[in-house]
Amino acid sequence: MTANTANSPKARLNICITCRASAGASDTTGNSETDATRHRDGKRLYDALSHEMATRTDPASFDIVPVECLSNCKSGCSVALSAAGKWGYVYGNLTIEDHAADILKLAEAYANAETGLVAWRERPETVRRNVIARIPPIGN
After folding, report:
1. pLDDT one-digit tens code per residue, 16-65
2. Burial of 40 by CB count in 10 Å (0-12 exposed, 13-18 middle, 19+ buried)?
3. How do 62-67 and 77-82 pair as beta strands?
4. Half-sphere exposure of 74 toward its Cβ, with a 13 Å CA cutoff?
5. Which among 9, 33, 127, 139 has the fewest CB atoms less than 10 Å away?
């Protein structure tokens, strides 16, 4: 049994659209970018994941939501998983190239976990060590 029944709201994959890649990130040519020229990598991540979800034929068990600033700026691109009555998570140091597909897999596993707790070995390997925080549910 999953936590997403017809009467409960979907889980949310919150993507910080104001995030920039970690300060040491390089562009595709290998040149280090400055704060002034670095693109909003969080917005690019949001756009890429939203596009991927729009091309799927199966209904998503979670919503993708753009948010402004998860206050995790020193840890590059960040996302947060949340749902009513579930543990929440913040993940950081994420990139489109290395993590995009696995972020969606993680969000799916989270949405289907009754308490929001996804077992370590059930999390996609590329994001297992990117947890910044685990937040207890309200009222539990």
Report:
1. 999 887 654 444 444 444 554 456 899 999 999 999 999 988 888 999 99
2. middle
3. unpaired
4. 1
5. 139
